Amino acid sequence: MHPDCPPNGIFGKNAQTQTVLMKFDLRLPFDKIAEQMQQQHGLPMSPATAFEITSRVSEDLTDEYQKIVAQIRTASKGIAE
C-alpha cells in the first residue's frame, strides 16, 4: 500500500488533517466540519465521518504524544540559577 493512503477509510492524510484542524483549532462542531469539507473541497462527508476521522487520528497519534510527554517530564528546567 502507498504510504499516503490511509489504513482505514477513504479520506487521505490531507483531508484527515484538515478535519482535525477544523475540530480542535477552529472548534467547529462535526456537522459544520462536514459542511465545510463539502463546500471548500467537494468532499462528501457526514458528521459521523468527521467524528470517526478525529477518533482515528487521535488513536494513531497517542504513542507519539506519550513520547513527547515523557521527554517533557524528563527534561531539565533550563533555568539559569
Give structural notes.
With 81 residues, the chain is an all-alpha fold. It has one domain (13-74). The chain has 3 helices and no strands. The longest helix has 28 residues, at 47-74. It is elongated and about 50 Å long.
Low-confidence stretches: none
In terms of quaternary structure, the protein is: single chain
Q: How many angstroms separate the termini?
A: 53 Å
By DSSP (H or I, 4+ residues per run), the number of helices equals 3
Proportion in β-strands: under 5%
Please trace the helix and strand order, writing H or E for each element.
HHH
Q: What kind of sheet is the major sheet?
A: none
* Content-based structural category: mainly alpha
Which percent range fits the helix content?
A: 55-70%
Question: How would you describe the shape?
Answer: elongated
Overall number of structural domains: 1
Integer average pLDDT: 89
Number of strands: 0
Radius of gyration: 17 Å
Nutshell version of this structure?
It contains three helices and no strands.
